[in-house]
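Our preliminary data section would be incomplete without showing what the modeling component actually yields. Below, a chain of 213 amino acids is followed by its predicted structure, encoded as tokens that our downstream tools consume directly.
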Amino acid sequence: MAKAIALTGFSALSLFAAAPAQAVILDFQSLEVVGMSTPGVNSPYTENGFIISNPRISYFGTLDRRYQGSTALFAASTFTPTISLAQVGNGSFTLTSIDLTDLNGDGIDETYKNVTVSFTGLRTDNSTITQAFTTDALRGFQTFNFSNFTNLVSVDWNQDAPFHQFDNINVTPTNATEIPEPFTMLGTITAAGFAAAFKRKLAKTQKDNKDIV
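Predicted structure:
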């Protein structure tokens, strides 16, 4: 029975440790405002364990003509154009995709512009990776997929003319900033179970040896 209990603990520990990191989507829907306002967001903005930094982050209310079907963020000043993405606690992560669209259109006949956005990722080994995307000239968001944006500690991109909105950032944490408490407790309990089982087996072996002699 003791062996079965120890094995059960080991199996539970293995399952806990092997659980893969889950992707999260930063969709900003909790910020949604019905109206024509252009609210600002306190920086850094935090959602689902990730941080987006820029001194002037804003978004459009749902009745603004520039709202394109989903709450999205943008850097509201060209004086501080750099937008940064990082994990809370500076853990590493993978960036899979992002939605982009033109920020303003022309405001007259709903003509939109091609916008090129260049992303630079900083990896844990201090190397960098860069990828650029260009939107079509249509209303609405496009999804762009990153290639090899892995083992990142941060990603930066700029709000350059003709400007863009961004939404639905798909990220996966790959390095937890701290070990969850249940993992530590389970590991301790399992180790104790194995130690107790081993001692019982050793005592029985010694007794059997004495009986043989």
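The helical segments are 2-18, 181-212. The longest strand covers residues 93-102. Preliminary results of this kind motivate Aim 1 of the renewal.
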